[in-house]
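Practice problem: predict the structure.
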Amino acid sequence: MASKYTCLAEQEEPEKPELRILLLGKTGVGKSASGNSILRGKVFRSTASSSSETSECQKETSLFEGQTLAVVDTPGLYETKLTKEEVKREIVRCISFAAPGPHVFLVVIQPNRFTKEEEKTVKIIQEIFGEQAADYTMALVIHEDDVKEETIEEAIKHPDLKDFISQCRGGYHVFNSRNKDPSQVRELLKKINTMIKRNGGCCYTTKMFEEAEKAINTEMEQLEMTVASETAKEGRYKAERRNKFTLGDWDSTVAGAAASTAGVGAGIAAGVGAGIVAGAGIIVQGARVGAAAGVAAGSAEAAGVAVDIAVSVAVKAAILKWKLWDCVTQ
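Answer:
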């Protein structure tokens, strides 16, 4: 699915808009610990174990030097324990949490534990979120206190790691996943912001993210009418977790949208016919105007159905890709 380089509603946001970071990577690699370091607090569950502590998407925010950082932690890309339904749920939650789109796909890797399957990560991101997502992808090369940064830089020269990082068009950043020092967060954000400027100053978005944002805004409007005392932040929190997009039945939506398509052609034809009949009693030009109106009405219906199909197919494709890569690693 082609990406759209538009700022959406971000032009109306404060001088320092929210920065959305989507953490991705292999199970147990240290995504949650990295998220905690970025937000400078223990908000994501993290252990030293190689097993996954994250079974569902989680979004947490924190203010850093006047800018809101929103970090979305995700289950491992190679998490084989999730069922198809769980994968479906987490894909749509991930999209909803990052809507209207992430500013960076931050792929967490450990150079001393880098595997063949991790070499495919950028390709997976592209297949799930779109080809141009690689322009917004950065490798977060993590280490702990007992490892010198010079050792990490030397490890990055390994051909496999070097090739992987070259696929991340946002480059890489060496990061201590256990250190809460704000200077390393500052340096990371500096690199992310440089990448954002290079990409036109906007977040990465596709039709999936746009539809999720639309559903969130609709849900927020409904919440405002029912809970007047709720703040915009509280409303957004609730709306991101429960909206038409996250509750969508993507299996039936594709079938239903496809069935609707069959009636669109007939609708256009009926519109043309009605326009001609309406115009026939006046002059031929009237018939043309009426026919054009009929075509426009039918086309509008077709456009709506096309959006349903495109978004539904994209979500289902994302679910399929995630599960396909799961199968490869089993």
